[in-house]
Amino acid sequence: MLDSKMYTCDQHLDKAFDHFLDENEVFPYLEKISIGTCSYCDCPAKYVLSVTSEDGHTQ
Ligand SMILES: [Zn+2]
Questions:
Q1: Mean pLDDT on 23-37
Q2: DSSP run (H or E) holding 30
Q3: Whole-angstrom Cα distance, residue 58 to residue 27?
Q4: What does the alpha-carbon distance between residue 22 and residue 33 come to, in Å, rounded to a whole number?
Q5: What's the gap in Å between 55 CA and the centre of ligand 1?
Q6: pLDDT of amino acid 31
Q7: What DSSP string describes 2-25?
Q8: Single pTM value for the model
Q9: Is 35 helix (H, G, I), strand (E, B) or coil?
Q10: How far is the centre of ligand 1, averaged over its atoms, from the C-alpha of 32 (Å)?
Q11: Which of 11, 33, 42, 49 is the most exposed place for a label (fewest CB within 10 A)?
């Protein structure tokens, strides 16, 4: 099972979404976060894209 997570700010959400689909071939579970740094710039991350949610549901 893949466990890749991708952090992104508002501006790079679309880009992260596409990138995530390319890498994992599944739609990401999207969560709002208040910590972390965007993978594409140095802004604080607003979202994390992951294969599964924190409570274990598979998207
Ligand atoms: Zn960004």
A1: 93
A2: strand 29-32
A3: 10
A4: 23
A5: 26
A6: 95
A7: ---EEEE-STTHHHHHHHHHHHHS
A8: 0.78
A9: coil
A10: 14
A11: 42
Q: How confident is the model at residue 15 (pLDDT cuts 50, 70, 90)?
A: very high
How far out from the chain centre does Cα 7 lie?
Answer: 5
Of 22, 16, 25, nearest in space to 48 by CA: 16
Counting beta carbons within 10 angstroms of the beta carbon of residue 44, is it exposed (0 to 12), middle (13 to 18) or buried (19 or more)?
A: middle
What is the whole-number distance in angstroms between the Cα of residue 56 and the centre of ligand 1?
Answer: 27
Which pLDDT does position 56 carry in this prediction? Answer: 55
C-alpha of residue 37 to centroid of ligand 1, in Å: 8
What average pLDDT does the segment 32-44 reach?
96
Report the separation in Å between the CA atom of 20 and the middle of ligand 1, taken as the mean of its atom positions.
14
Between the CA of 19 and the centroid of ligand 1 the distance, in Å, is 13
